[in-house]
Amino acid sequence: MGKKLLLAALTAMLGLTLAGTASAAAQPGYVALGDSYASGVGTRTYYDTSCDRSVYAYSQLLAGRLGLALNLQACSGAKTADVLKNQVAALSTSTQYVTISVGGNDIGFSSVIEKCALPLYDCTGDINKAVGLITGTLPGALDGVYTQIHTRAPSAKVVVVGYPRLFNGVACNALARISPTEEGQLNAAADTLDNTIKARAAAHGFTFLDPRSAFTGHAVCDKVEWLNGLSNPVSESYHPNRDGHVGFANLLQPLL
Hints:
The chain is an alpha/beta fold and 256 residues long. The termini are far apart. It contains 10 helices and 5 strands; from the N terminus they run H-E-H-H-E-H-E-H-H-H-E-H-E-H-H. Helix 4 (80-87) runs parallel beside helix 7 (138-152) and helix 6 (124-136) packs parallel to helix 8 (180-203). Helix 8 (180-203) links the parallel strand 4 (157-161) and strand 5. 43% of the residues are buried. Strands 2-1-3-4-5 form a 5-stranded parallel beta sheet, with helices on both faces. The chain is globular and about 55 Å long.
């Protein structure tokens, strides 16, 4: 009798194991591509420091909520060329969901903000140069990435994630002397960037997530910030914090 009970117990355990394996295999495949805004920079906790990937990134939150099998490929500092070289190979015909945030590094937006933060420095020329790249070379670079996504994952639901406006027009950080005028110019550049990304996403039949309205009232210097201001380490600066990634996840969830 004891042997029979043991055999029954082992059989039941094996059935549960196989069911769990089948359930995991049945999870829809989700690949998250892009730059630091997608990898989780700003959340201050990283499990992969080579790319600053975080368990608090919006893709991680979405995967947990929706029961998706996540492959987080996004990497801090990535440009469109890096996505093509290092990330799109993760896509396949079985990929069901894709999110991507890329373009900001192609125009050097982080370095422009750093220059704007310098005392007694007028960064208007740097902002104008970045805007020139947005309207000049960026559309073609985005097309290259979006074409590869469609080719490699033709059946996937693809959501292209835009960038929020960083500033509310108030200079609140004494160490980052970005004037209200420069903040307005940087926000206008972010608008141009988003509008360009939106147009190219639409041309490829992809959904565009515009975060600007949702982040209004949660910019740098607002009472409830979803974006870090000047931070230590500096790499955390001007990126979504954990609340910001929750905000992105809330916006993305109904689109996936």
